[in-house]
Amino acid sequence: QVQLVESGGGLVQAGGSLRLSCAASGRTFRNYGMGWFRQAPGKEREFVAAISWTGRSTTYADSVKGRFTISRDIAKNTVNLQMNSLKAEDTAVYSCAADPNTDGLYRYWGQGTQVTVSS
User: Fold this and answer.
1) Shortest CA distance to 28 belongs to which of 95, 74, 71?
2) SS3 of 88, please?
3) In sequence order, which residues have a C-beta less than 8 Å from that of residue 69 and are 6 or more positions away?
4) What is the Cα 89 distance to its own chain's centre?
5) What is the pLDDT, as a whole number, of residue 38?
6) pLDDT on residue 26
7) Who wins on pLDDT, 112 or 102?
8) Around Cβ 76, how many Cβ atoms within 10 Å?
């Protein structure tokens, strides 16, 4: 079992930056693919970014490319999401998730952290 806890959310003005972190505990997650997802009020959850277990491969949703950067620190068991040039439409609850079999299926989820961008 893997426990995921997000932190770093908050209120920021449009154009500002936030850095989200996801701390993993329990079984080692060093071989897991990791991802960030978000869900805005009244909308379905959507993919934001993913990183391979090696950290060498990353994928981003078109809406965040060039603004968000996903990274992982194996030694600290964390996955981070650096968010720059934030827009009002980035407002959502952001959750990290673990893909233990690196098959694109995220089996472990955190509770999420609220990000609110004021325009």
Assistant:
1) 74
2) helix
3) 49, 58, 81, 82, 84
4) 16
5) 98
6) 75
7) 112
8) 11
Six-digit token string for 28? 């080692």
Q: Write out pLDDT tens, residues 37-51.
A: 999 999 999 999 999
Q: What is the DSSP letter of 31?
A: T
Q: How far apart are CA 55 and CA 76, in angstroms?
A: 14
Going by C-alpha positions, the residue among 43, 22, 35, 45 that lies closest to residue 99 is 35
Query: 118 falls in which pLDDT band (50, 70, 90)?
Result: very high
Contact yes or no for 85/110 (Cβ under 8 A): no
Amino acid (one-letter) located at 17: S
Q: DSSP of 40-82, one letter per residue?
A: -TTS--EEEEEE-TTSS-EEE-TTTTTTEEEEEETTTTEEEEE
The one-letter code for the residue type at 54 is T
- DSSP 8-state symbol, 1: -
Give 19-37 pLDDT, tens digit per residue: 999 999 876 778 899 999 9
Whether 16 contacts 9, CB under 8 Å: no
